[in-house]
Amino acid sequence: MTDMPLPPADADDRRAIKPVICYPNETLPKAPMALYQAARATATKVDEVLIPARDARCFEVPAGQFFRISSVEGPQVGDLNLWNSKDLSERFFSGKTRALHGTHITTGERMWTSFPTLRPMATIVEDTLGWYGIDAYGGSVHDVIGTRCDPYTGNLLAGDHYHYCCHSNLTRALAAHTGMSLQEAEPYVHDVLNVFMCTGFTRDTGQYFMKASPVRPGDYLEFFAEIDLLGALSACPGGDCSSEHSSDTAVCYPMLVEVFAPEKGALGDWKSPAINGYDRSHGVAG
Prior knowledge:
Layout (H helix, E strand, L loop, with lengths): L10 H5 L17 H9 L2 E8 L4 E6 L4 E6 L6 E7 L2 E5 L2 H8 L8 E3 L7 E8 L12 E4 L7 H8 L7 H13 L3 H4 L7 E9 L6 E4 L8 E6 L3 E7 L19 E7 L25
């Protein structure tokens, strides 16, 4: 391994250059939050799914309804996948959501779909942990930077075969819900929204870190479904992620998903967002 090169004479000047936001988001379509809040006030619960500790379950939410993810027994984080329920190839795009909103998302911000549709699929309408902000370590909640704990990285780093990590949990849940085999379902499992998880990057090494989640029973994150959704939520085997994930020793708790339908007409003439308007020619003349 070669030694670290000596810094050039103008190193401090280069480091002092101010950053530029890659994707200024002032022109993003704004979520009609007042409309959503008014519709939510009329809504009644139509379904619920309890997610067992160290496992995952699927749920469905028609466009125009709401779903809430709650902590119900103890501090617990969850890994969330979302798909267009009518076309699983349209799914949550964590990387672009991160580029548009930042490393962690909260009320008024949206989960965006994959290319080529790139449209809002769910909007956060309420976040009881919105008070947390960014702590002294650079940590915050509900991140779109972690990928999900998985058996492949575990095998790479430790040589083990741990089957109750979030990737495997989500794979089993999707297979069971759709009737696909595990091999058919696994490619649809994708990078997640880490619900309630408190994460950031270390300032000295730039490594992804986790710390004890501030979530407590009664806290919740609530969404408006912009399109017909199939969701899968894994109650992470790391519990509140205060020490480790992919663990049979961490204290873990179930999570609750509830679905709420507003009164007929409460959304007025609202419609699901259209797919992205790019013509997909990629510079090649027709």
